[in-house]
Amino acid sequence: MSIASKATFGLCFVVSVGIIGYVHYKQAYDRKQLRLGITRDIERQERRKAENVYILQQQIELAKELRKKQAIEGDNT
User: Fold this and answer.
1) Secretion signal: which residues (predicted)?
2) Separation of alpha carbons 30 and 22, rounded Å
3) How far apart are CA 31 and CA 38, in angstroms?
4) CA dihedral 11, 14, 20, 26 (to 10 degrees)
C-alpha cells in the first residue's frame, strides 16, 4: 500500500470512530435529558396538586364562614 492510501485509510478510520463515538455520546445525553424531563414533569404535577389541595382547603373554609354569616343573618331577620 502506498503512503497516500494508508493515510486515507487511517483518516477514514479516525473519522468513523469519531462519528460512532459522538453518536453514542449524543444518545446517552438525550436519554439523560428525557429522564430529567420526566422527573421535572412529575415534580411539577406534585406541586400543582399540592397547590390545588391548598386552594380547595381555603375554599372550604370560606364556604364555612359564608354559611355561618348567612345563618346569623337568617336568624336576625
Assistant:
1) none
2) 12
3) 11
4) -110
pTM exceeds 0.70 for this model: no
Give the type of residue at 3.
Answer: I
Rounded Cα–Cα distance for residues 35 and 42 (Å): 11
Torsion sign over Cα 52, 54, 58, 64: positive
pLDDT, position 38:
93
Q: What is the pLDDT of residues 23-39, one digit of tens each?
A: 999 999 999 999 999 99
**Alpha-carbon dihedral of residues 24, 25, 27, 33, nearest 10 degrees?**
160
Tell the residue number behind the cell numbers 468513523, with chain if given: 16
C-alpha distance from residue 40 to each of 17, 18, 20, 36 (Å): 35, 33, 30, 6
